[in-house]
Design brief:
Number of helices: 14
Largest sheet: 6 strands, mixed
CATH topology of the largest domain: Rossmann fold
Number of domains: 2
Radius of gyration: 20 Å
CATH superfamily of the largest domain: 5'-nuclease
CATH class of the largest domain: Alpha Beta
Number of strands: 6
Shape: globular
Strand order of the largest sheet: 3-2-1-4-5-6
Distance between the termini: 14 Å
CATH architecture of the largest domain: 3-Layer(aba) Sandwich
Amino acid sequence: MIIIDYNGIAIGNIVVQKLSIDENLIRHMILNSIRMYRKRYHKEFGEVVIVADGAKNWRKEVFPQYKYSRKEHRKESSIDWDEVFRITNMVRDEIRDNFPYKVMHVNGCEADDVIATLALETQEFGKYEPVMIISSDKDFIQLQKYDNIKQFSPITKKLVSHPNPRVYLMEHIFKGDGGDGVPNVLSDDNVFVDGRRQTPVTQKKMDVWMASDDLRATLSDEVYRNYSRNKKLIDLTETPEEVKKEIINTFESQNPVKNKQKVFDYLIQKRCKLLLENVMEFI
């Protein structure tokens, strides 16, 4: 299974490559990226699965401060985000309707939840299939504790790896994730919202915590509470069971093989001349 983080190849590339907000250009960029990764990894990892963020992320209910600054940063940006989302959402739906790939867009969760749930599902008996995650998000390092899960970063153009994914996850929980508005375990919920500095988490402290057989006994009540907060938000095995069930049901209900016959006509309709030359690499 080749699991592609749709926002990573769509919105990520728009920002990194500073693309003009042109519908045809963005469509071509997204489709060409999918073609390229499928060509590179199809033989070893199987078929493509496109995964996009859904609305009403459950993490916002658990922690209202989650990604609180994203909207503000977009307001200050020169990019027309409404147009970006209109185009990328439209192309996502076009892929769903015209390509032989499962497209996962599950309300109530992020793409991270979907990618992790599908990758972890391969650990079940009889499903131990190779998985390649196409994403620059280092959150997925924690999944690499399983030998069948690998990751490629579209930004660095390299495989993403870590010598000890379990240690990486623990350190990530202790340090928090400033980009997502998750404070470290020594800081309160509103530290970023209030514009305050976090209490530093040193490597020495993390080493002590990491060596503990009982974190509940090692950490103070407040720090353990913050640790539990971060684990819920960062550890991808913490996705609520009802969300996991919805993800699996959505995945298993799709059978897009019939769309193979639509690809050629779609590329003609959208005037994707360069992609037409390599149409077989999509199917």
